[in-house]
Amino acid sequence: MASAGRQRPYTLLSCGMSIDGYLSSGTTTRLLLSNDADFDRVDAVRASCDAILVGATTVRNDNPRLVVRSQQRRDERTARGLAPSPMKVTVTGRAELDARADFFTAGEAEKLVYCARPRVDDARARLGPVATVVDGGHTVEMHRLSNDLADRGVERLMVEGGGTVHTQFLTADLVDELQLVVAPVFVGDSQAPRFVRDGHFPWNPARRATLAEVRQIGDVVLLRYALSSRFEDD
Ligand SMILES: NC(=O)c1ccc[n+]([C@@H]2O[C@H](COP(=O)([O-])OP(=O)(O)OC[C@H]3O[C@@H](n4cnc5c(N)ncnc54)[C@H](OP(=O)(O)O)[C@@H]3O)[C@@H](O)[C@H]2O)c1
Q1: What's the pLDDT score for residue 5?
Q2: Checking DSSP bridges between strand 220-226 and strand 177-183, what pairing results, if any?
Q3: What confidence score (pLDDT) does residue 234 get?
Q4: 220 CB near ligand 1 (under 6 Å)
Q5: Contact 161 CB / ligand 1 (< 6 Å)
Q6: Mutate to test the pocket of ligand 1, among 58, 90, 197 (most ligand atoms within 8 A of CB)
Q7: Which of 58, 155, 97, 138 is nearest to 146 (CA)?
């Protein structure tokens, strides 16, 4: 993995959760937390970014496409000399990812897999034809990953889950903006994945995060938090 050359990307963490703080149902049934208007807002945020990152469990469980859906937004990106959708990035220790997953097959954008060193050869054998596999070091560390993305030209990174990945970005103080959507449902299953796992977060009673915006979008609410001095209000 390359060393830090430029400033790490502006990092925006976008997530939907239930009233009781869960990311999904904890069963194989996919839980839709957003509504159409919010999906469209997220699409616009995706279109504004250079790369979208999700954890390997999200790739396996949700099989997300992670492409810009709106043709107009895709055309606007193309007119700016960009790929229609941002680069896709995932991180794995075990390298047990299916090359036929939509993450790898949907869209023309570059796909990057940061893999812990012990399984890099397996990852390259399995995913080499569909992605660039990056040796992420003995354990993939998010500061190094962010700096490596910057060296690859990523200036604006969107982190889209799940909780394991959120926790690492937040506890490492790598997030400039948090966009948290609260959906009007309860999950009520402590086995389901939560927005974050245990950790030491930089924001606490002695250092409160800055709430920058509250926006109702139909039956969900968007909370935007400024988590660094780089926060870009729009
Ligand atoms: N509501 C939302 O907005 C939203 C968004 C996204 C996801 N989700 C939900 O979130 C759930 C998944 O969350 P999750 O916390 O279980 O998993 P996750 O964060 O999606 O992925 C965790 C996996 O990523 C890999 N990984 C993470 N950090 C790593 C590191 N430093 N080094 C190497 N590998 C690393 C590991 O993969 P390996 O196991 O391959 O080693 C790990 O098991 C899914 O059920 C999904 O539905 C919800």
Answers
A1: 60
A2: antiparallel
A3: 77
A4: no
A5: yes
A6: 58
A7: 155
For residue 76, what pLDDT is reported? 98
Is the CB of 38 within 6 Å of ligand 1?
Answer: no
Sites in the chain below the pLDDT cut of 50: 4
Which pLDDT score, from 0 to 100, does residue 156 have?
98
Distance between Cα 192 and ligand 1 center (Å): 12
- Looking at residue 2, what is its pLDDT? 54
Q: Looking at ligand 1, which atom is closest to the CA of residue 95? A: 40
Q: Is 118 in the pocket of ligand 1 (CB under 6 A)?
A: no
Which residues are CB-neighbours of 157 under 8 A, at least 6 positions away?
9, 10, 11, 12, 49, 50, 51, 52, 53, 89, 146, 149
Contacts (Cβ under 8 Å, ≥6 apart) of 79:
none
Among residues 15, 21, 76, 71, the alpha carbon closest in space to that of 48 is found at 76
Residue 40: both structure tokens together? 């469209």
Report the run of H or E that residue 10 belongs to, with start and end.
strand 10-18
The answer to whether the CB of 15 is under 6 A from ligand 1 is yes
Cis link prior to 162 (omega < 30° from 0)? yes
pLDDT at 32: 87
What integer pLDDT is reported at residue 140 of this predicted model? 96
Q: What pLDDT was estimated at residue 29? A: 75
From the CA of 93, give the closest atom in ligand 1: 41
Mutate to test the pocket of ligand 1, among 146, 164, 223 (most ligand atoms within 8 A of CB): 164
